[in-house]
Amino acid sequence: MRLLPPDTVSTLREHLNEQKNFDLGEACRLLGETFKQLRRFYVCIDALDECNEENRGEFLRSLSKITKECSSIRTFLTAGRHIDWKELMKRNPGLGSFDHMLLEVQPEDIRIYVSHEIDIDVNGDCMDGKLRSEILERIVDNSDGI
User: How many other CB atoms sit within 10 Å of the CB of residue 30?
Assistant: First the structure.
């Protein structure tokens, strides 16, 4: 079974050979054609809040358009707590219905993660126990569930 339509393959090859970038409209068209070939396709976008607002809006409008055209797409988006999900979905109705969950990391989970990262740090031998404890305490105390 061929996943990519022949037109999409030739366009991808042309861009690759000529080292050309895609414009957003062309990229969306190719994605839409490809998604229509699939029974189900999942798109996961992590850390949406890290995208600047102008690009985020353009990206979501494009994703919304593709999602409207291809019923096989299911989207999963993550972002920090400061994103207003209801407003985001109101401005991008093509993304469909959504469930909103607030996930918070527990301080002990952050402590375990940071401790592990310190352990595997190639410069870890430059750190004494006091500095290690201070780093852990400051990061955990200022994490605020993120």
Answer: 19
Instruction: Give the CB-side neighbour count of residue 12, counting CA atoms within 13 A.
Output: 12
pTM over 0.70: no
What's the pLDDT tens digit per position in 90-134? Answer: 877 777 666 667 777 888 999 999 999 988 988 877 888 899 899
Residue 104 has phi, psi (to 5 degrees) of: -125, 140
How distant, in Å, are the alpha carbons of 13, 23, 36, 42, 50 from that of 93?
34, 23, 20, 18, 21
The secondary structure of 29-92 as a DSSP string is: HHHHHHHTT-S-EEEEE--GGGS-HHHHHHHHHHHHHHHHH-TTEEEEE---TTS-HHHHHHH-
Query: Do 8 and 30 contact (CB within 8 A), yes or no?
Result: yes
Q: Which residues are bridge partners to 43 per DSSP?
A: 75
